[in-house]
């Protein structure tokens, strides 16, 4: 299980595929090992960056089980079990808990566009049904709705197992409100790599990261330095990786991250439709940025 002591860089891990678009479990195992060896503090499996939208329930459970097996308790494994169907989310969250997941990341219910009251009851229902640490995931750009500071704080106060939020709203004012009024034991993690430093300066405890897929050592060190108040070193690493952070969203996530990993020889560059491999111009930019950051010869 995870708790309020969770800090640092949690990688939202990609899901590698074979040419036939089946899950490449061999490459996945290598990625998990590499993440642990590089010093990240946790992994999210089957999140947005893991192409959860096109994974079957069977595949999700298999990936969670494999990650837990490889990690062997060295770092927490957080399962992405959220959806826009409350009862389906409960079912998958129960399965993740049964397999030994240390916690779950629950995205805001997308497409349905519920009111704040609907969002509140969605998370309340899951919290009451499954006794597992829950991290809220607020990402208006993908879900089409914002979980307001008021709603997040209400959930934090009323649900002891809701222990954190991954905030990807890019709204620093909203995040500051959450951190100012959060009850003890409820923490905020950046959902945007490039905003990690300012968020930590306001009281954030880390980041759920995309760039740490392929720059885990540098990025997790940057986050640790910021958490220790060593801002000069943190800024140095931030600017070293800034171009790559920006390029990660030159096309739909995780397309650029998978391109970077493929250039580094860690996975094959395969995505499931409707996502497609990165365009040649952006691939060239990523290759150059990787070289300039010392991540590729």
CATH superfamily: Aldolase class I
Reported CATH architecture = Alpha-Beta Barrel
Question: Stretches where pLDDT falls below 50 for ≥5 residues?
Answer: none
CATH class: Alpha Beta
Percent range of helical residues: 40-55%
Largest sheet: 8 strands, parallel, barrel
Strand order, largest beta sheet: 1-2-3-4-5-6-7-8
- Mean of pLDDT: 97
> What is the number of strand segments?
8
**Span between N and C termini?**
39 Å
Structural class designation:
alpha/beta
The domain tally reads: 1
What is the general shape? globular
Any overview of this molecule?
By secondary structure, this protein is of the alpha/beta class. It is 46% helix and 12% strand. It has helices at 25-37, 57-71, 86-99, 116-129, 140-143, 149-158, 172-181, 196-202, 216-227, 231-247, 255-263, 280-292, and strands at residues 8-12, 42-45, 77-80, 103-107, 134-138, 162-167, 187-190, 206-209. α4 packs parallel to α6, α9 packs across α10 and α10 runs antiparallel to α12. It has one domain (8-233): TIM Barrel, CATH 3.20.20. The mean pLDDT is 97. α4 links the parallel β4 (103-107) and β5 (134-138). The protein is built from twelve helices and eight strands. An eight-stranded parallel barrel has the order 1-2-3-4-5-6-7-8, surrounded by seven helices.
